[in-house]
Write a structure and sequence with these properties.
Blueprint: E1 25-26, H1 63-72, H2 92-108, H3 111-121, E2 131-132, H4 150-153, H5 156-163, H6 166-182, E3 201-203, H7 205-220, H8 224-245, E4 246-247, E5 252-253, E6 256-258, H9 276-290, H10 297-314, E7 334-337, H11 339-346, E8 353-356, H12 361-376, H13 382-398, E9 408-409, H14 426-431, E10 434-435, H15 439-456
Antiparallel strand pairs: 1-2, 3-6, 4-5, 7-8, 9-10
Helix pairs in contact: 2-3, 2-15, 5-6, 7-8, 7-9, 8-10, 9-10, 9-12, 12-13, 12-15
Length: 458
Amino acid sequence: MFLFSVFFLVSCGSVENNTNDKEKEIVPEKEEKKEDITNINLKPVLDSEINYDSLILANEVGMESYINSLMESTDSYIPSWNKEGFKDKWNYIDGVFLKSMLSLYDQTKENKYLDFVVKYVDYYLTAKGNFLRPSGSDGAPYALGELDSVCETNILFDLYKYTNNQKYLHAILTTYKIYTANVPRLSDGICYSHKDIYPNQVWLDGFYMYAPFTIKYALCLDDEAKKDALLLDLYNQYKFVREHLFSEEKQLYYHGYSETDIFWAAENKCSKSFWLRSNGWFLASLADVLEYYPKGEKRDYLKSIFIEAIDGILKYQDADSKMFYQVIDRKGDRANISYSQYSKYLNDYKEDVVIENYLESSGSLLLVYSILKGFNNGTLNSDYYNKGIEIYNGVTSKYFIDNELKNICITAGLGPETKLYRDGSFEYYLAEAVGSNDAKGVGPLIMSYVETKRAAIS
């Protein structure tokens, strides 16, 4: 498969002073020649004419005041929406939230949303567009060997479009060079490993982290051969996942795949459970990629697996809440959570506990976003849109209370060998901490809200 090396030189005009420019930065190793990406003019691909008749209405839940409260509670580079230890460096959690803010700006044209994103991003970039740690502390401002951080750079396409500030283009080019040079692939060269610390492993999460960036990057290239190669590469990776991580029996995707032996992988080389948010990440990546992927057989294939995956998850919808469970296919099941194996690492429990599989907000909302965006881009029909609104109304009725989105799984993963409790079991996914107002749920909530507005004004 295709591996690409990118050499670039971006001319940087006069911009506002950044008092952090002197701090530790991520900079290109050397500047050799200009990469032919000087104009970002992305045009969405519409599958078919959209029928806006007979759409059901979304709950009105005071979203504007909620969003304002999140902005007002974040007056520095330490955000209110990030519940993990990723603060003070470029990271995917911030990327998910900031993407939702830019989609809100694109819909409303209210400058406060764009201004907020610009201010926040500029804590992390010098005037030249190099990455830094806002605090000036030691440590890498950008994790080189992972796909996750690419997610935040995805928003810079819009920032460059809205501001024409060259530093955002510079950071886009730097990001592409970083992940293509530092993230390993599987032995056959098709799929990226999730991170360099997880070699030979493919996780569904990674597709949301880097695929929407890659499709935009590819389509902004003037070099048609490079563009076609990147589009083919992306298609082949989705095809690999469909062939290796999809359960024909369950019609769901496993969270991860490992081509080498590891403790969490079963005989099929996949993890043991169907984690809701990982399926949600994968679907959201397809929704975003299909927004731009050129028409033809490859797009038709991506569309087919997008619809297949949505239909698969919908089979497991809770009849009362309209939401979905943390482990998708285990409704009503309970797990005996061993304190020594799980809880002492993950939660505040002081002894063995029994936990029931629970309705989870972030994964449910990622499915909502995927469906609504698919409809607004002409990929899905109005029946799907109404199903998406049904889920949205279910989440906002049950778990969006007093400006707080509840029942968000804060994090989950597979391994490494130093974390044997992350074993991909049903028990493990229930043992992970559950919280509120984390961007992995808040971002999809706002993005779903924007998609409801797109349909409502059409």
